[in-house]
Design a protein that fits this description.
The protein is α+β, with helices and mostly antiparallel strands. The chain has two domains: about 220 residues, Rossmann fold; about 130 residues, Nucleic acid-binding proteins (OB fold (Dihydrolipoamide Acetyltransferase, E2P)), CATH 2.40.50. It is built from eight helices and 22 strands. The protein has a six-stranded mixed β-sheet with strand order 6-7-8-3-9-10, sandwiched between helices. The chain has a five-stranded antiparallel β-sheet with strand order 16-20-17-18-19, with no helix packed on it. Strand 13 and strand 14 form a beta hairpin. Helix 2 packs parallel to helix 4 and helix 3 crosses helix 4. The N terminus is likely disordered.
């Protein structure tokens, strides 16, 4: 293969400047920093043109994985392939990769237009006229064409980040790597920018890895979400798969706002028992989990306190906090097993067994309530944290 300057490309990729992303294959990637293991046996495949969000807490290995893909770090073990070509020994500038940094990394003495033009002229070897035209087109797509002549110091943080993102996307690389590109922006601007970024990546067709610790951002941006914890890949799946069927207890308690309620118990004779609850469970179960929206809440009555015969998971408790979130309300209920979060519609807080007419809502702090979740809403985890098949 040859690049635009006619030189042979050691990475085997097609001529740069196109729009077709390449598949990424990670096989047992590991990275050690002395005695610290930043990545451990990470394996995943990313399809051409797919956006995968790398999600996890600080120190989970997200940025290390991104830097290995960029060629800024070397893997201690395993293989990384772009388009089937092993990237070991290939320099960063030869990988056809664009990287968006967390803190802009713009040239302060250059205008927005010149920052983009420079990347195209020296990164893509484009003639000046073509580079300027492409730079202007990209700035217009990001809604900042009017800022073309401004330097970074003359822009807001959001405007600077748009320029930084535009510089990466203008190159139309086959792989785009974004390292928490919106972490320093306010919530409203983050939502606006992530919509623009996803739209542009879809339009370009680049394969993209998007690092974030913000789960809402990961679920909105990624075609699939890779959840990392302590250097290990916990789960790779669509946002719905990760939310509805978390592969591990960590994923269950990390993804979601509030996250899944997970309560420990002891398994005896096919029944998992804990403080204030007993529920049918599969072999090996050590904990049961229910998403906040999986519970119904009703005022406690003698009938609701009876032992369930329908396989439902029930808990009695007292509402301690009721948090209004627009059309929904999250209530926190203190139970014998711990504090449980429950999500209910604000307009219809009484779900299940209704209170007598005129009685206060079960969502009101201080009320005694019964929480009930059908068997289908329960997830079970083993002592190793892995998700177990649901009981028949």
């Amino acid at each position: 293969m040859t690049g635009t300057d006619g030189a042979a490309r050691p990475d085997g990729l097609a001529t740069p400047g196109g729009t077709a992303g390449v598949p990424i294959e990670m096989v047992g990637l590991g990275r050690d920093f002395g005695s610290v293991q930043a990545l451990a046996d990470v394996s995943m495949s990313v399809r051409p043109g797919e956006i995968v969000a790398l999600l996890g807490p600080s120190g989970s290995g997200k940025s290390t994985l991104l830097r290995i893909c960029a060629g800024l770090e070397s893997a201690s073990s395993g293989r990384l392939l772009f388009g089937g070509v092993d990237q070991a020994g290939i320099a960063p500038h030869q990988r056809d990769v664009s990287l968006v940094f967390q803190h802009y990394a713009l040239y302060p003495h250059l205008s927005a237009l010149d920052n983009l033009t420079l990347a195209l002229r020296y990164g893509r070897r484009q003639p000046k006229k073509a580079a300027v035209a492409r730079a202007r087109e990209t700035l217009d797509m990001l809604g900042i064409g009017a800022l073309a002549d401004r330097r970074p110091a003359q822009m807001s943080g959001g405007q600077r980040q748009r320029v930084a993102i535009g510089r990466a996307l203008a190159r139309q690389s086959r792989v785009v790597l974004l390292d928490e590109p919106m972490s320093g922006l306010d919530a409203k601007l983050r939502v606006e920018l992530r919509v623009e970024i996803v739209g542009l990546l879809r339009r370009l067709g680049s394969t993209a890895l998007f690092v974030t610790h913000d789960q809402a951002e990961a679920m909105a941006v990624g075609d699939r979400v890779a959840v990392l914890n302590a250097g290990r890949l916990e789960q790779l799946g669509t946002p719905d798969e990760v939310y509805d069927r978390p592969a591990t207890r960590f994923v269950a308690t990390f993804v979601g706002s509030p996250p899944m309620n997970v309560l420990d118990g002891t398994l005896t004779g096919g029944v998992l028992s804990g403080p204030g609850f007993a529920v049918a469970a599969p072999p090996g179960a050590a904990a049961v989990g229910v998403r906040p929206e999986g519970f119904a809440v009703a005022a406690t009555t003698p009938a609701s306190a009876a032992a369930p015969a329908d396989g439902a998971f029930r808990l009695d408790g007292t509402v301690v906090v009721s948090e209004r979130l627009g059309a929904e309300r999250v209530i926190y209920v203190q139970t014998a097993a711990g504090t449980v979060a429950v999500r209910v519609p604000t307009a219809t807080p009484q779900i299940g067994v209704a209170d007598p007419a005129g009685a206060p809502s079960p969502a009101q702090p201080g009320r005694s309530v019964t929480l009930a979740a059908p068997a289908a809403a329960c997830a079970f985890f083993g002592s190793d944290g892995a998700l177990l098949p649901a009981p028949r």
